[in-house]
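Reminder: ligand-aware prediction takes two inputs, not one.
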Amino acid sequence: MNREQTRAEQGPADRAVAELARTWGAEPDGVWTAPGRVNLIGEHVDYNGGRCLPMALTRVTAAAVRARDDDRVRLASDDPDAEPFEGRLSDLGPGGVTGWAAYAAGVLWALQQAGIEVPGMDLAVSSDVPLGAGLSSSASLECAVGLAAVELAGRPEDPALRQLLVDAAIRAENEVVGAATGGMDQTVAMLAADGAALLIDFRDGSTRPVPLGLAEAGLKLLVIDTRVRHALADGQYGQRRRDCEEAAGILGVSTLGEVTAADVERLTDPRLRARARHVVSEIARVDELVALVRAGRVAECGPLLDASHASLRDDYEVSAVELDTVVAAATAAGALGARMTGGGFGGSAIALVPERAVADVQAAVVAACRERGLTTPVTLAVTSGPAARRLS
Ligand code: GLA
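Here is what comes back for the chain with alpha-D-galactopyranose:
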């Protein structure tokens, strides 16, 4: 594991250890971390049996944990807005916990449901994955807590255990938090390969690392956080899922991942046709982008990012004025391509940028937002980091 990454994870890890001592008066048995993620392409296709290409970030959530001899579970976060939670192992299921603690408690519940004998524990977390930025701070929290719990339960690390953790984290989010998310975020947090993006195929759940070769091509991947999250995000996400299920039902398939562009044209409802067109065209763009990257042609991927954004904006209708503004400004200032990333309605965009144009793009997105009276975005250049792991 490279030393720079370990140093980057040390900040959240140290803060989690300090929080554990401050709130619960405990010394940790260990510290576990799990990364946030950014999705390169393949948006809103995970719950449609499609393919997507996310990458783990070097930013992580750290969980410092001390196992207990009884069945008590005590959870704390160093986020000043996050209230501590205290309960018993049997209290953690749907309806039992609300707020930030539901992500952590939910995964402990789902692991118990999967037959893991999770011990009682005192736990504290700290994260440098920005909250609400569409970079999967929630999956990173679930996965750090989940990995800690299975190790403290004495389960040895193996690929089957990682998959069980992915499933438990998804269950936590769907059933305890009550967010109908699709599984991309938890999969990459648990299974990412350091130094590569991860191609996830939701037809069978298989994953394959795809090294991007950005540095060799003189390119940077910028994340542009609009620092805005519109209130309608959650309801609209569920509505998009229902639209896709309805369209798949009309076409007589279980997911839209199985249909062709010609099938889509058979949908008579214009809204459902547009939703399905996005899904089918986006899956094709993932395949094209992966083929270009594998051929050493990552610098030619820009137009696919642009097309993905247009499809999410016009057919899937999940963009926002802030996202459209930064995407247009980034492209005008020299990005090879740009798109919104994650669920949409705010959050972040990504831009593929030649190293020499990074400063111009950063200045341009800030200027464009100021001109329109929008919140000033924050830009960070990202590289890929490792999957969830034990840090100490
Ligand atoms: C959110 C969800 C993911 C995925 C994306 C859109 O991040 O958590 O499961 O559906 O939106 O691609």
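Residues 39, 43-44, 46-47, 181-185, 342-343 surround alpha-D-galactopyranose (CB under 6 Å). The longest strand covers residues 54-67. We will return to this case in the review session.
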